[in-house]
Amino acid sequence: MADSNETDDGQRAGDAPVTELTAQFTTEQLLQIKQAAVRLQTEFEGIFNTETIERFMTDSQHRLAPKARFTNWLPMLIERFSRERLTALAKVESGVSERPSVLFLCVHNAGRSQMAAGWLRSIAGGAIDVYSGGSDPGAELNAAAIEVMAEVGIDISTEFPKPWTDEIARAADVIITMGCGDACPIFPGTRYEDWELADPAGQNTEFVRTVRDDIRGRVEALVASLGVTTGSN
Q1: What average pLDDT does the segment 175-179 reach?
Q2: Identified catalytic residue from 169, 184, 208, 215
Q3: Is residue 102 a contact partner of residue 130, using CB atoms and an 8 Å limit?
Q4: Number of C-alpha atoms within 13 angstroms, CB side, residue 103?
Q5: Which CATH number covers residue 218?
Q6: 16-20, 194-198, 223-227: lowest mean pLDDT where?
Q7: pLDDT tens digit string along 41-76?
Q8: Range(s) of the domain holding residue 188
Q9: Do the domain assignments include residue 2?
Q10: Is 184 a catalytic residue?
Q11: Same domain membership, residue 112 and residue 77
């Protein structure tokens, strides 16, 4: 059972005072967060104890809240981010996984890395665990990126910018970097690829389409290199 967890900046998950982090929430939102904690405790029963799950939820809250534009969505985002992190940590601590994991990293986690993650989820069809993150996450996804991905039948509108974390980076078999430079994590034994892609931020839809299509080709080559059986067309 996992009890000691450190974040990428060397702090234990959940070190921030709970009173400081919960002050911005309504009573209803606090109830939603408590209900989310119960769901995660059920999902990870026998893997992580209640204290570990609560630490990760508090830490995820601390990481997401400062840049959240719409706090009414925060309880849901905190639950999703915590679930991703706990799933990754379970893989790290067990040392085994049924599927390879890929982490896409850029600066803001709002355009390129989100499109790449969307493509990989679509092409791999669940055969690969997909993560994305940013060294300096933005407040929201690039609207043009959402639009052009929708054109090819991939919905990334429910995704959200988030920071990369130590446990997710350690769980990744492949880390794809997209311009995050020295802020990207380096772990011995992990496969790395640096994709030089044009930044879609502030660009028109036509330009972002070219970035989208460039990413698709790279993702298809990545999937082929991993040798997994997918449900892609």
Answers
A1: 92
A2: 184
A3: yes
A4: 31
A5: 3.40.50.2300
A6: 16-20
A7: 999 999 999 999 999 999 999 999 888 777 788 999
A8: 98-233
A9: no
A10: yes
A11: no
User: Is 48 part of a structural domain of the chain?
Assistant: yes
Given the residues 36, 106, 116, 117, select the one marked as catalytic: 106
The total number of structural domains in the chain stands at: 2
Residue pointed to by tokens 């298809």: 220
How far is Cα 61 from Cα 41, in angstroms, rounded to an integer?
17
pLDDT in tens, 132-154: 999 999 999 999 999 999 999 99
CA dihedral 141, 104, 182, 226 (to 10 degrees): -170
To the query of whether residue 106 is one of the catalytic residues in this protein, the response is: yes
A 10 A CB-CB count for 138 gives 19
Which residues have a Cβ under 8 Å from the Cβ of 53 and sit 6 or more positions away? 37, 40, 41, 44, 82, 86
Strand runs labelled E in the chain: 101-106, 129-134, 174-177, 191-194
Q: How far apart are CA 68 and CA 5, in angstroms?
A: 25
Beta bridge partners of 48: 2
Distance separating alpha carbons of residues 110 and 9, to the nearest angstrom: 22
- Are residues 71 and 118 located together in one domain of the fold? no
Picking from 96, 131, 166, the residue at the C-terminal end of a domain is 96
Handedness of CA 43, 45, 50, 53 (dihedral sign): negative
